[in-house]
Amino acid sequence: MTDPATSETTYAGWRNAFGQYRNVLAIVLSLTLLQGAAAALSVMIALGLQASGTSNAALGLVAAFYAGGFLTGAILSPIQISRIGHIRSFAFFAAIAIIASLSLTLGPSVIFWALVQAVIGACTSALFTAGESWIADASPPEKRGAILGFYHVVAKLGAIGGPFAVMAGANGIMGFLMVAALFAVTIMPITATRQIQPEIHAASPFGPRKILKYAPAAAFAAFCAGAVNNSVAQLYPIFAQAISPDSAAAFSARFNGALLAGAMLGLWPAGFISDRIDRRLVIAAAGIIGAVSAVALTLFSPLATEAVILLLAFLFGMGALSYYAVAVAHAADRARPEQATSMMAGILIIWGIGSVIGPLIAGVSMSAIGPGGLFAFAALALAIMAALMFTRMVNTPEVTSEEKEPFNATQATSLAISEIDPRGEATNEQFDLFLAWMASQETDTE
């Protein structure tokens, strides 16, 4: 029979644990839906242009325009947010994204869709900036590591679910209407919250040259992550369609789910291990896992069963999609505490440059050798990155364990994400939803 006192203590512990995240739940929900809308749109764009006979090189160009818009929005949107506030900015940019998504129903056109993608990319980045700067302001310093990890995990679930949401209408206008609806729904939680709007805190990023001076390995890794990750995120539906032409949308959703599940599962072990050994070795190992999986996807996908392909996608995600946060941690290790925010914001700029260049190369590769060229490009890029990590390890000593800042999960979404990161602060608590409950249990035991 359960002791009433124990039950009450357990309930209080859960309530306290939930309370750590209550102030940011509405914003996290909006950004999770935003991740879903962006992921769903990539499926619609790729399959829509492919169906109209567009070349893979042109598809890479459209993906590069999205990345260019995203980078531009990350840099410029804090100005607009500081002028009119977070809620108004969120509604403003979401409205533009809705209109842009609906304009895609006018019919496929490479130039038109590329321009629309640039607009949507800028709006998406601005929405992340508004939401993440709000999370940064609402998060107490001692809880920022926990809240950052919580947000990272929940938002990834949105990115997994987005393509499944548009499967029913992925072959026509209905799919774009669903994407527009997802963008519209993102407005609801954040405009309904009673939380006070914060002041915008725009990080001043270090330039690429300065980051290359402080942490060249982090710069190389971030550039490769942008080039590979954005190429795969935007162009994987073409690869999936080649594997399963009769059910391209459904298989694309499953393939995307496998990629992101691998990324989520690989992130935490990578971070845990990188706190104990040279982070560059962890980045190199992740790159090798990703490269080997990419080679297997390139060579064996025409013959392998769906289960094998999804397993390889999972392994690719575990390697290639999980090391960006380790690269950010390595950059933070090389910076002084007061420089950490600018360093991490600068790493995002380098990621953004890679995300523009990568799809252009991947598209040409796919045009040259077929849909498998996407992962051939990824394998080559990841192998080069791993080699550069080993070169840096030989030429430059590892930072001491005392100089290391504990790992925290992060993602390439906005400059404001660096404001949430607690590195350089006195307390850096890792993501643990059960932490408060465990603490209360220990207190009762004592």
UniProtKB/TrEMBL annotation:
Domain Major facilitator superfamily (MFS) profile span(s) in chain numbering: 214-446
Spans traversing the lipid bilayer: 24-51, 57-77, 89-106, 172-190, 248-269, 281-301, 307-331, 343-362, 368-390
Keyword tags: Membrane, Transmembrane, Transmembrane helix
PROSITE patterns per record: MFS
Pfam families: MFS_1
Protein name in the entry: MFS transporter
